[in-house]
Write a structure and sequence with these properties.
With 220 residues, the chain is an alpha/beta fold. The protein is 40% helix and 18% strand.
Length: 220
């Protein structure tokens, strides 16, 4: 950990990524697209929430999705069934998307016809938090099937998030999970972030989430 060569390599990698991210950001700004980068552990419900959101709001907001996974296009196929344009990125052994991968995916999308681009990052609460993709907003999901203390165990993933979504709340009656404690941990890490509690299955809390997305596209 004290070897300066290791530190230098890390800085060089992130500096290159940040330069590419700045280029992506310029493209997004010129296209008038709101870009949201979704982070979470594997299985927190990113794809399920996306499918529900796209299905319910696609008549109001023009969406597109970049789907990140190490292998398979299973989640991209689920998105495709909503009728929303989707591009799959398979990172193979990489545990995150980076700005270069994102830029390559943009060639497959007509950004001029898109209001909001969701980037579903690889399921991981560590690496994705360090890589800027050029997005305007990061949103981190936490499911009630995880521990309440995830925000303090993996603070960067929640500190860089403009919003946090507590998912799968329909399961709370069956779990030993304190949602208020989870929200308090998140508040300690990032007092300014917007926080939601919802269930894509029961529909609880979805309207507040939907209004948040509407406001983003309207510039509110």
């Amino acid at each position: 950990m004290n070897d300066p060569r290791v530190i230098t390599v890390k800085k060089d990698i992130l500096a290159k990524n940040d330069a590419l991210a700045a280029n992506n950001q310029l493209i997004f700004k010129e296209s008038g697209v709101i870009v949201v980068n979704l982070l979470s552990s594997p299985g927190a419900g990113k794809t399920t929430l996306l499918v529900k959101t796209l299905t319910d709001l696609k008549s109001e907001i023009k969406f597109a999705v970049i789907e990140g996974d190490q292998r398979t296009d299973n989640d991209a196929r689920r998105i495709m069934e909503t009728g929303v344009p989707v591009t799959q990125i398979n990172t193979q052994s990489a545990c995150h998307l980076d700005a270069g991968m994102t830029f390559q995916a943009l060639d497959t999308l007509d950004l001029g016809s898109v209001d909001m681009l969701f980037i579903e990052n690889v399921g991981n609460l560590v690496c994705p938090a360090s890589y800027d993709l050029g997005e305007q907003m990061k949103i981190t999901l936490l499911s009630v099937t995880e521990g309440e203390d995830k925000p303090v165990k993996y603070p960067k993933a929640f500190r860089v998030a403009d919003a946090m979504v507590l998912t799968k709340t329909d399961l709370l009656p069956y779990l030993d999970f304190d949602p208020d404690q989870a929200m308090e941990y998140a508040r300690k890490v990032n007092p300014a972030q917007k926080r939601f509690r919802l269930s894509a299955k029961s529909g609880a809390g979805l309207e507040e989430w939907y209004q948040f997305l509407r406001d983003l596209t309207n510039g509110s």
